[in-house]
Amino acid sequence: MNGAQGAPTGAGPGSDPDVTLKVLVAGGFGAGKTTLVGSVSEIHPLRTEERLSEAGEMVDDTGGVDLKGSTTVAMDFGRITIRQGLSLYLFGTPGQDRFWFLWDDLSEGALGAVVLADTRRLQDCFPAVDYFERRSIPFLVAVNCFAESHSYGADEVSRALDLDRGTPVVLCDVRDRDSGKEVLVRLVEHAGRWRSDRVLDPVG
């Protein structure tokens, strides 16, 4: 799927070409990446989940997500049509640091990324935020509002993560398709502005 960004597909005579954009869904272990991809995908999502083993429990911090019984070991994949002529390919990244070597391949050609945050384990967001900032990949932070977690506002989360000015923070419920779709729409809008600003900056 590398190079999916901006690829025309199925354009007929006199019609606008379809555009597919590649989006990453990242974040810490148990933040809801697989759930987000599955809830919004219009196709049966591809999942590479394995049950957590006793060996994995020795290296994966399950504090706060004790009921989680499986984990993504490669990626999740789904697709959603945002509007006529515009679809997103969604790639959910593995959350554990021992699988981060996969991120470079997954991020190639991506329009941008959603970093899912769980306020019970907010520190788990830092590696993903740092990764996308260092590689100049536009992203937003989506706070997955778990019922048992303390409620924080977008500004509080932004300050806690020390985000660059202009990086959006949105609140969502990844189990809800409309909520997840709104997150993706916000990302597409943000990535469009982000790239436009960088084209105009040298001219200015």
Automatic annotation (TrEMBL):
Respond yes or no to whether keyword Repeat is given for this record: no
- UniProt cross-references to SUPFAM superfamilies, sorted A to Z: P-loop containing nucleoside triphosphate hydrolases
Which keywords belong to this entry? Answer: ATP-binding, GTP-binding, Hydrolase, Nucleotide-binding
Pfam families, sorted? ATP_bind_1 (PF03029)
Entry annotated with the keyword GTP-binding: yes
Q: Which residues form the signal peptide?
A: none
Q: In terms of domain of life, where is this protein from?
A: Bacteria
Q: What is an example of a GO molecular function annotated in this UniProt entry?
A: ATP binding
Q: Which family does it belong to?
A: Belongs to the GPN-loop GTPase family.
Question: Sorted alphabetically, which PANTHER family does this protein's record hold?
Answer: ATP/GTP-BINDING PROTEIN-RELATED, GLIDING MOTILITY PROTEIN MGLA
Q: What is this protein's record name?
A: ATP-binding protein
Organism whose genome encodes this protein = Streptomyces kronopolitis
Q: Taxonomic lineage of this organism?
A: Bacteria, Bacillati, Actinomycetota, Actinomycetes, Kitasatosporales
